[in-house]
TrEMBL record:
Protein name as it appears in the record: Lysylphosphatidylglycerol synthetase, C-terminal domain, DUF2156 family
Topological category with respect to the lipid bilayer: Multi-pass membrane protein
Keywords from the named record: Cell membrane, Membrane, Transmembrane, Transmembrane helix
Keyword Transmembrane helix: yes
Subcellular location: Cell membrane
Organism: Salinibacterium xinjiangense
Positions of transmembrane segments: 63-83, 90-111, 131-148, 153-168, 174-190, 210-230, 276-298, 305-325, 345-364, 385-408, 447-468
Residue ranges constituting the Phosphatidylglycerol lysyltransferase C-terminal domain according to the UniProt record: 488-783
Length: 817
């Protein structure tokens, strides 16, 4: 009851929709007379029945649509009303519903006047569709949502309406898209926020979520044809498997079409019997592989990129060949030839061929967000399964067809089977445009003819599942990571935990007592941190790693190491330079007294007045509400930067999910998250002796000084836990100025740091951390040869920004200016 009082319009709308449906027919919908009176169509427009623009938004066609509408209204309109209030929700529902019908009928009228094929085909369709104003209301509400949910809502609303229009193509599908577009414009006006198309900038996690959703929509698009009353969309042929039958044969087509039930016609019908299930299975298996690929995208599997893009591109190529080339070369069925006489046939072919290929290219362009690559062994196994499956299926069909040659009409030879072989693995929705050279007439030949395709695709599905399950983080195996983590738990450093993150490779000394996490970029093996573990002879172990790099023609670069390792490398003749300064707090002596602590004390007092408190937990212990807010704050930070998230030694949203990472979350009394921090562990002999600050982001409109408050609370917790140190980490490429003469590498790295400063604010971050009066611990880069400095500078930049695009580079240069 409380929720109904908060959403009175939603409750009233549900009551009206249900009452109207019960009165006019909840199962089969209104009678034809009522439909003509209240529905939107060109005839009503000609009769000046203007009320139909409104009444069409409250009637449904059948029980299935009623259930969908009630669910969409309860969830979508209810959420919109809670988000932007009752008055705005009523306005959004009324404006988008009427505007969608008015604009839609206007477009249909123009199409009919111009003789456009689609408009002429749907001119008699009467539309009853409450989903249009519901979709429009959600689109309006997206303008009032947070950045994360604004993007998700708009992606889902616009994406789903476009897919329905492309696959179904009914007037109601056009009205929903128009309602969504009008809703976006109205939301912009109500919030006074300019509606504009911006370049896509998002975190790795959010990009994976949206790409996975797009893959699911693309995979399920053909299924829309199953529930659609009619199929007028550009991409409806790609989903025609739900109604398509095998195309007629050259020998059987004419008698069936002209001579009635002749013997050839009987054999043709006999060849069709029992193939319905195989047709559907053959069409569904590629879609199932696409859905599995979408799951892989969600979990960062790079192999899923190639699976999804391959299926999508194959759809486009096959559509272009069978819908475009086959009719031209004279092998098309009569239906395809009749379709080819339409002036819009070229657009129809282009849409079916280009859109899937375009989707494949978009997916491929986002490879940098997917670090989990398959192991070489898993990739070889996948290729082996594919090759063996293709060989067995092809050989079985050719051999079996040769043995059963007499069970085909006409009798086939080996050449006929070989020419027909590729089409046994293609969904029938493509083959419907082509005449068949022969048809199976016996039971064994039908099982072979219709069964070989589903068997091959089943094997491919199994191969994809195995491949995606065995994908690993780029550069390492799970066992190597586990071994590295075990060494870190025994003897790690304050900056060594990022070595456990995705993207690293690992080197171990011969005794397996020391490990180094590194990345090979631009011919340089750049270490993620100092080595972990306690080797008997550190000098010998370091020498072995250097020899290992030399044998692979890599230039080793020890990045972010402490003075112990820098001194050792200097003794080996290497050069060193300070690349960052770690800010370290001693919990045992922590106190906030004196004038220097005034800013921090003010922030703590402000938090107490405003009811802001810090809670400590791991990601798994967060409530769904809190986790969503953390994701929103992170996404807003990425969107504002207009550049990709930095990686390498800086964690993002994915790294928060590690169960060893402690989260400090500041929230007010209403449960609104103000800021989030993550604290990486440092172990000594299996016991946590320190924590290092990594992830640090705050709500843009949150409490001033909230981050100072969170860090102060972290210091108090470290004091209570008896930790040896609390590290605020080191800001990359940010070093306090000194009087010493700078080296060439210092100048190169200084230039890089200056370039990134306007966007990422590393030096400002260092100044912020100095509020806590820490001691500064230098972090060094050690390198063997000054000749490698240019390659090393590029390697470090690409470690943080592995796939910086030309446009992103331009944005970076503009920031420097």
């Amino acid at each position: 009851m409380r929720r109904l009082r908060r959403t009175p319009f939603t409750a009233a709308l549900l009551a009206v929709l249900l009452t109207v449906a019960v009165v006019t027919g909840p199962v089969n919908g209104p009678s034809s007379a009522v439909r003509r009176l209240v529905g939107a169509d060109l005839a009503a427009l000609g009769r000046h029945e203007w009320w139909s623009f409104i009444t069409t938004d409250f009637f449904v066609d059948n029980l299935a649509q009623l259930l969908i509408v009630l669910g969409a209204a309860a969830v979508g309109v209810g959420a919109a009303e809670r988000l932007m209030g009752t008055a705005r929700t009523v306005l959004a529902f009324a404006v988008t519903g009427v505007a969608a019908s008015t604009l839609g009928l206007g477009i249909e009228s123009l199409g009919v006047f111009a003789g456009e094929y689609w408009a002429d085909a749907v001119r008699g369709v009467v539309t009853l569709d409450p989903l249009s104003p519901i979709v429009g209301t959600v689109a309006v509400a997206s303008a009032f949502a947070s950045v994360l949910w604004r993007r998700r809502l708009r992606f889902m609303v616009v994406g789903s309406t476009v897919v329905f229009l492309l696959y179904s193509g009914q007037p109601s599908d056009l009205y929903r898209l128009l309602a969504a577009l009008v809703g976006l414009l109205l939301g912009s006006l109500l919030t006074r926020r300019r509606l504009r198309v911006e370049r896509w900038t998002s975190s790795h996690h959010e990009t994976r979520v949206l790409l996975a959703a797009a893959a699911v929509v693309f995979a399920l698009g053909p299924v829309i044809t199953l529930v659609s009353h009619a199929r007028f969309g550009f991409l409806s042929p790609l989903g025609a498997f739900t109604t398509a039958v095998m195309p007629p044969s050259r020998s059987g087509g004419e008698p069936c079409a002209v001579s009635g039930p002749a013997r050839a016609c009987y054999e043709q019908w006999e060849s069709h019997s029992g193939q319905g299930a195989s047709v559907v299975v053959l069409a569904l298996l590629p879609l199932a592989i696409m859905l599995i690929g979408a799951y892989g995208l969600l979990h960062g599997r790079r192999a899923a990129i190639y699976v999804v893009s391959a299926i999508a591109a194959a759809n486009g190529v096959l559509a272009g060949f069978y819908f475009g080339i086959v009719p031209v070369i004279g092998s098309a069925s009569h239906a395809a030839l009749r379709a080819g006489q339409s002036p819009e046939f070229g657009v129809w072919i282009a849409a079916n061929a280009v859109l899937p290929v375009l989707f494949a290219l978009i997916v491929l362009s986002q490879r940098r967000h997917f670090p989990r690559q398959p192991r070489a062994k898993a990739a070889r196994r996948f290729l082996s399964i594919v090759v063996i499956a293709v060989a067995v299926a092809s050989g079985g069909y050719l051999l079996g067809g040769s043995l059963l040659a007499g069970q085909f009409n006409p009798t086939v030879g080996f050449g006929d089977l070989l020419a027909d072989l590729p089409e046994r693995f293609i969904p029938v929705s493509f083959l419907d445009a082509e005449l068949r050279d022969f048809v199976p007439t016996g039971l064994a030949s039908r099982l072979l003819y219709h069964g070989v395709g589903p068997l091959l695709w089943t094997a491919l599905l199994v191969a994809v599942v195995v491949l995606l399950r065995e994908s690993r983080s780029a550069g390492s195996s799970a066992s190597e990571r586990a071994e590295f983590l075990a060494l870190e738990r025994s003897a790690g450093g304050s900056m060594s935990f990022p070595g456990t993150w995705a993207g690293n490779s690992y080197w171990f000394n011969s005794e397996r007592s020391m490990a180094i996490a590194y990345r090979v970029v631009n011919g340089c093996a750049v270490t993620t941190s100092a080595p972990v573990g306690e080797p008997l002879d550190p000098r010998e172990a370091i020498g072995a790693f250097i020899t290992f790099c030399d044998s692979n023609a890599w230039t080793p670069a020890f990045y972010g190491v402490h003075e112990r390792w820098a001194r050792l490398l200097t003794e080996l003749g290497w050069s060193t330079t300070v690349v960052a300064e770690e800010t370290v707090i001693d919990p045992a002596t922590w106190k906030m007294t004196g004038k220097k602590w005034q800013d921090v004390r003010s922030s703590v007092n402000r938090a107490a007045r405003e009811g802001v408190k810090v809670s400590w937990s791991t990601w798994r212990e967060l409530s769904t509400h809190t986790a969503n807010q953390v994701a929103e704050i992170s996404e807003l930070w990425v969107v504002e930067k207009k550049l990709p998230e930095l990686g390498f030694t800086l964690g993002g949203l994915e790294e928060l999910r590690d169960p060893d990472v402690l989260l400090g979350i500041a929230a007010d009394g209403a449960g609104t998250v103000q800021a989030v921090t993550s604290w990486l562990p440092t172990w000594t002999d299996g016991v946590i002796t320190g924590r290092t600050l990594d992830f640090m982001r705050r709500r843009a409109d949150g409490m001033n000084g909230v981050m100072e408050f969170v860090i102060a609370e972290a210091a108090v917790r470290a004091q209570l836990d008896g930790l040896d140190f609390l590290s605020l980490s080191g800001a990359p490429l940010a070093v306090a100025p000194t009087d010493e003469k700078s080296s060439p590498l210092d100048r190169v790295l200084g230039m890089l740091g200056t370039s990134l400063e306007p966007v990422y604010g590393f030096r400002s971050l260092l100044n912020f951390k100095q509020k806590f009066q820490p001691r500064l611990v230098p972090l060094y880069l050690a390198y063997p040869d000054a000749m490698s400095l240019p390659a090393m500078a590029v390697a470090i930049a690409r470690c943080y920004l592995p796939e910086l695009t030309l446009r992103e580079s331009t944005a970076l240069v503009r920031g420097l200016r």
